Fold:
Amino acid sequence: MNMNMSKKVLVVEDEIEIRQLIVLHLKREGFEVDEVADGESALRKLSENDYSIVLLDWMLPQMSGVEITKWMRVQNSLKRTPILMVTAKVDPEHVAAGLDAGADDYLPKPFDTLVLKARVNALMRRSQWLKAAGEIVKDVHIGALTLKPEQYEIHMDGHKMDLTKSEYKLLETLMSHQGKVLSRERLINEIQGSDVNVVGRTVDTHVFGLRKKLGHHSDLIETIRGIGYRVKYLDQQ
Structure:
């Protein structure tokens, strides 16, 4: 993969003014950008090129952004490509549907171009961090927290946290998807198991308990109103 490929972006947007605005600002950030206006063209581009991130509108001719996302997530070569959904569908149920389909983050229309660039760069950093770690990370360091998956432990400021199984699984999942918005439904699906039982709004209860145990580090877990939660992205030192 050449150097340009590592910053190559596909923008899928049928509104030409919005597409041109996105492309302009991404090029100013140093990205190589391909642009298409419909679902079939998007699939063709995705099949023929390697992209480091895809910006995807929800409402498109021929295929919706959600359908494209679901298709990408069953392709071995695309299942880990970051997807930023840029959409006017900002009702919680729509955002949750996009995230549950496999999108990594969402940006509501109309958007500020500074926020657009920040979201894209955050997803790029997260993707590069995962690749650099070989996507099999023994220890994950996020601020004062260290996830030790082999020991099933999370340490804060160097000391092992006293967590219930549900709290551990929840925080492990959030840390393993650092910077990615996870809906309550996605969190339930991720952490549910024979020894962990999480349903409905009990996710909120577990997050409340986790924040109490995190103390002055509680702001690491961000609430995405009406959707779910994420652990904020911090540059790794």
